[in-house]
Amino acid sequence: MGKPAAPKNPHSDNAGRAAPGNPARAESGNPDRAAPGNPARAAPGNSDRAASGNSDRAASGNPGRAGGAARAGGPADEGRGRANGGAPTGGGGEGAPRAGGNARRSAARLAALRLLEAVLERHRPLEEALDALPRLDGRDRAAGHRIAAAVLRRLGTLDAALEPWLRREPPPVVRHALRIGAAELLLLGTAPHAAVASAVGLVPRSLSGLANAVLRRVAEAGTAALDGLDVERLDTPAWLWTAWHDAYGPAVRRIAAAHRAEAPLDLTLAPGAPGAAPPPGGELLPTGSLRFPAGTRVTELPGFAEGAFWVQDAAAALPARLLAARPGERVADLCAAPGGKTAQLAAAGATVTAVEREPRRAARLRENLARLRLNAAVVEADVVEWAAGGEAAGRFDAVLLDAPCTATGTIRRHPDVARLKRPRDVPSAAEAQGRLLAAAARLLAPGGRLVLATCSLQPEEGEAHLAAAAALGLRHDPFRPEELPGLPEALTGAGTLRTRPDFWSEHGGMDGFFAARFRQA
C-alpha cells in the first residue's frame, strides 16, 4: 500500500475489499487505539452542537433524552438489578428465562460478544476481529457479525435504554451481554424469551441474575424504552458531532440518522464482461451503480463467478469515473487495494499500474482482478518511495489517489469506525495524505490529470488539500454538473465532489466522499 504513516482506511470501495471466501465484505482499517470508556453518550442540552472536549461521555443525568430527564416520571428505583417476577412481553415471553450461565451460550451471540470485546476493549477493527474468530458455521458467523454491528451502530441508544435499570457500571462482559440482549429486543426483532436467555448465557453464573433482571425490564418496556431519546446524538461520538456541525450545520442530524441504517449492496458492472447482463432485482442508480438491499449475498448473484461486476459503494465509484481514463492512457492507481477503482480504470481500456504497499492486500488485489478477468500491473511498493525513485516520475497521463483516511464517511458500512477513531487521527491522516499528494504529482506527465479522493467527512482530509495542491503547481480542474448525473447536491461551489451519507436518502444513502481533480501545468 502506498501510504506513509497513516493506516489504510476501511474504504467504502468494498468489492472491492472482500476477503477471500467472502467477497461481499469490506476490509477493515487499522485505526489508532481508542480511548476507554463509553464512547457514545451525547452532550447535554437540545442543541445540535456537542459539548467541547474530546470525551464522548455525557454530563450527569441522561442528556440524550428529551428534557434531560432519564425517563418521563423517573424510573422506579426499587428492583433495579433484581428479578421482578414478570415474564418478558411484546411478542413471545412464555415465562421468565432461567439464568443458565455459560451452559446456554449461543454460538452467534458468543461471536457477537467476542467481536464487541475486540472493538471496544482491544480497539481492533470489526472485520479484523471477525477474521480472527474461531471457525464457525456460516450462519452463526453472519448472525454474530450482524448483532455486533447493530450494537456498534446504536451503542449510545442501547446504553441509554439500559441505564435506568443499572445502579452501577457492570463488568465489561455483562455490559456487552446487556447490549447484545437489548439490541435483539429493541432493534432486531428477536423473540423476548430467546433474546434474554441467550444474553444471560454469556455472563458468569454469579452475575446472571443481574443480567436476567435488567433484560426482563427492557423486554417489558419494549420499544417504549427508546421514547424520548435523542438517538442521533447518542449514537454519534461528541467530537464527530461537533466537527460535522461545524462543517455541515444542521445537516449533522441527517448524517447521524443515515448511520442508523445498514448500508445496501452496490455493484459496479463490468462493461462487456461474459454474462454481463445485470443481475435481476437491483435498482439502477443515476450514476450507473446497481443497488441491492442490505444483506444481499453477492456471491449468489448471477454473473459473480464470471466477473460481471464487483462490489463498490455508489460514492466510491465516482472518483475513477471523474478521472475519465481513456483507452491506451497510462494510469496509476495509488493505494490501490482491494481493486475496485483499479478494475474501473482497466475496464475503461487504460494501461493501469496499481501500487499497493501491503503484500496481503496486493495479493487480494490480484485475486479480484483475476476474477474480473482484467489486467493491471501490480506493484508492491510504498507510493512515496516509489515516486521518489525516479523511474516512474512523469510517466503517467492520469493518476488516481484514493488516499488512506479516517474513513468517517463509511460509518454506515463500518460502524466500528465511530468507536475507534479519535480527534488526533484527523491531522495525522491529513499530513500523510499531503505527502501522498506530493508523490502523486511527481508521477504526472505534462498536462496530466490527477484525482484525489478520501472517504472521510472531515474537511481537513478533503477541502483543505486544495491549497496544498496549488503549492505543488497543480491547477484545479473543477467538476462539471453533467459529470454527476442525479447528484447536483454533491457538486460544491468550488467544483469539488462532496457526498454525504444523507444524500440519496430515498435510495438508501451513500458513503461520504471528497474528490478533486487537478492538472499538471
SSE order and pairing:
Layout: H1 107-121, H2 126-132, H3 138-153, H4 155-162, H5 172-186, H6 192-200, H7 208-221, H8 231-234, H9 238-248, H10 251-258, E1 265-269, E2 283-284, E3 290-292, E4 309-311, H11 318-323, E5 330-334, H12 340-347, E6 351-356, H13 359-372, E7 377-380, H14 383-388, E8 396-402, H15 416-420, H16 425-443, E9 444-454, H17 465-471, E10 474-476, E11 497-498, E12 514-520
Can you walk through the features of this model?
With 521 residues, the protein is α/β, with parallel strands linked by helices. Helix content is 33%, strand content 11%. It folds into 2 domains: 14-234, N-utilizing Substance Protein B Homolog, Chain A (Orthogonal Bundle); 314-520, 3-Layer(aba) Sandwich (Rossmann fold). It contains 17 helices and 12 strands. Helix 1 (107-121) packs across helix 5 (172-186). The radius of gyration is 24 Å and the shape is globular.
Corresponding CATH superfamily of the largest domain: NusB-like
Shape: globular
Q: Given this structure, which CATH class of the largest domain is correct?
A: Mainly Alpha
Helix content: 25-40%
Summed over residues and divided by their number, the pLDDT gives a mean of: 83
